[in-house]
User: What shape does this take?
Amino acid sequence: MKYAIFILLIAIALFAETADRIVPTYAFKKNVAEMTYLIEVKNDDSTILDVLFEPKHILKYAGRTNLVIKPISEKNNRNILEYNYNYLVAKLLVEMKRERFPELNKITFSMIRYNKTSPVIPQVLSIEGSYQIIEKNGQKFIKYHQQTVMKEDINKVYQMLMKRDVRRFIRETIAYLDATSKSSLAERQK
Assistant: This one.
């Protein structure tokens, strides 16, 4: 029993540390959802861009969610990824075009295909957004921004599900970035 409490306290502490590093802002207006997250990071810029862009990295941290990612094409600073969400009531496939702009410390993404297996999942007309590394008050952040436009108004349930899925993905991304940072540091110290 005391070990279970100890493990629970460690999990709460780790979650709190990650949560403190994520500052979300949401705006839901009729059929448009805008989500912006500021995520405090310490990694160097090239590592951050690689982890956020390269499919070999994304496949490692996305697998911890209800999401399966499949690379469709890769060319220089562009790629197309297929995102497969497996929900209890339906499946969803979203194909995204992504572009990396190293000189701007930015990655953009936009939806090019959307396929759902059930009317329970709302019809999405567009998804676009970006990741950008920014400096604010001497701290480094990833600014994640996503705008989703749906065919119908976005109700409270879908708002909650959208927030949950994006937060989960961001938490896994941060955990992977932290692990990458620690392993890079260990390699340099050898």
